[in-house]
Design a protein that fits this description.
The chain is of the alpha+beta class and about 425 residues long. It has helices at about 5-10, 10-20, 25-30, 35-70, 75-105, 145-150, 155-160, 170-190, 205-210, 240, 300-320, 365-370, 395-405, and strands at about 125-130, 155, 170, 195, 200-205, 220-225, 230-235, 250, 255-265, 285-295, 320-325, 340-345, 350-360, 370-375, 380-385, 385-395, 410-415, 425-429. It has two domains: about 5-105, Orthogonal Bundle (Helix Hairpins); about 120-429, BirA Bifunctional Protein, domain 2 (2-Layer Sandwich). It has 13 helices and 18 strands. The strands form five sheets. It has an eight-stranded mixed beta sheet. A hairpin with a 4-residue loop joins strand 12 and strand 13.
Length: about 425
């Protein structure tokens, strides 16, 4: 969440920066007025402190009179009324703080000044392109046709089992997915300095609150209940990886922390019906290799650039053409301060599609999760900056291989970097 003191003391700047995200003052105040609530909280708190000071002085006077054998009944009666007033004000204070806390949870992060301003994806800016789209010499097919014809993807049987937006992988399809996972993990752990983690796939509401999925995006989550306990299926490994150090104070010498995890991910895709209904693009269940960093504010943007390079390296070694774009203020995620999307070329759809999204969340998630570090011995702890990115989305990488590697005879060439993970298989037929 945002720093309450910063919000209160910099109203005009906060309104301006949230306006860059497309939020008007009216939209911000629709959920509640943080400045009015804070003023109310401060006013009530001041009254409570004044009354408690009065109670302390009265207590001392009552004790003095008691020792002197003097009557203090009138003063005691007066303090009883003060105590009732303090109790009522405490209730108002707790209510104001609770409303202010809930309001702060639904305010998005502020964009970094370097982020281009715009209302939607049309204002995103391309940073670079790497590789050329293949000249296939025939009309390319989409991955759902390629996979179905090769017998390695089956959407009909998945629908029979689980409904829409699921897939069954068979044979070389399942093997290719597994090869991609191992290839990505090996690259990130052996060469890029990440520590591998296998986190839980079910998490508490408190964990999701810490990374920003709750309360705003509950409709996008799958929720389970066992007895009296509610748990949520993770929408991304970013959630448990970021929560590894919740309520901890790290040492500056231990930063940055770099983690990588392969997990299944589960998303209800609420509000996306009618979009990408065919194929693997927008599934309820999919695999992803996720990168997470915890770092200092001073190195945050440099570490973001490094994370983008780590994700790009996967595509370079697979020989897949792609481009990098920086998202504008109106297209960024709720908790992001700056985001780069990596988009891979898909011949079957004749466009670039997102395959990785790498973001700096500044201290937004760290405040919600209470993750801090000590800059130097005995210094006051500061909040870390959290970063996350796909390294990569596995299913979308498989899509790119099928569509870019397709041949006129219907077969698919396996990238050379993956062949050691597939016992030398060069072509899926």
């Amino acid at each position: 969440m945002l720093d309450l003191r910063f919000v209160v003391e910099n109203r005009d700047r906060v309104v301006e920066m949230l306006g860059r995200r497309g939020l008007s003052v009216d939209a911000i105040l629709a959920a509640g007025d943080p400045w009015a609530l804070d003023a109310e909280r401060r006013s009530v708190l001041q009254k409570v402190e004044q009354l408690r000071h009065r109670q302390r002085l009265a207590g001392e006077e009552i004790a003095r009179r008691g020792k002197a054998g003097q009557d203090a009944s009138e003063l005691k009666a007066d303090m009883k009324g003060v105590a009732e007033e303090v109790k009522a004000l405490d209730g108002r204070l707790q209510d104001a703080e609770a409303r202010l806390g809930q309001l702060m949870l639904v305010l998005p992060n502020l964009p970094d000044p370097s982020v281009p301003v715009g209302p939607d994806a049309s204002a995103n800016q391309e940073v670079r392109r790497v590789g050329e789209p293949p000249q296939l010499g025939f009309t390319p097919k989409a991955h759902w046709d390629i996979g179905t014809r090769l017998g390695i993807l089956d959407f009909d049987r998945a629908a029979k089992i689980s409904g829409a937006r699921f897939a069954v992988y068979f044979g070389a399809g399942a093997r290719l997915e597994r090869a991609l996972i191992q290839f990505m993990l090996d690259l990130h752990t052996k060469e890029r300095g990440y520590r591998e983690v296998i986190p839980p796939y079910l998490v508490t509401a408190e964990t999701l609150l810490g990374t920003g999925q709750l309360p705003k995006f509950e409709a996008d989550l799958f929720k389970t209940r066992a007895g009296e306990k509610d748990l949520y299926l993770i929408p991304t490994a970013e959630v448990p990886l970021t929560a590894l150090h919740r309520d901890e104070i790290l040492e500056a010498a231990d930063l940055p922390r770099r983690y990588v995890a392969f997990t299944p991910c589960f998303r209800s895709e609420a509000g996306s019906y009618g979009k990408d209904v065919r194929g693997l693009i927008r599934q309820h269940q999919f695999h992803k290799v996720e990168l997470v960093k915890l770092t200092t504010p001073e190195t945050s943007l440099a570490e973001l650039d490094s994370m983008v390079a780590d994700a790009e390296e996967v595509l370079k070694r697979l020989g897949l053409p792609y481009r990098v774009v920086v998202l504008c203020t109106g297209d960024m995620g709720f908790w992001s301060a700056k985001t780069y999307d990596i988009e891979v070329w898909l011949p079957g759809q004749a466009l670039y599609r997102e395959i990785s999204s790498c973001s700096s969340c500044t201290d937004y998630q760290a405040r919600r999760s209470s993750i801090r570090y000590r800059p130097a011995p005995k210094e006051k702890p500061r909040y870390v900056h959290t970063l996350n990115g796909s390294g990569l989305a596995v299913g979308r990488t498989l899509i790119a291989i099928l569509e870019n590697g397709q041949q006129a005879d219907g077969s698919v060439v396996v990238p050379s970097a993956l062949r050691p993970y597939m016992d030398g298989l060069e072509r899926i037929v």
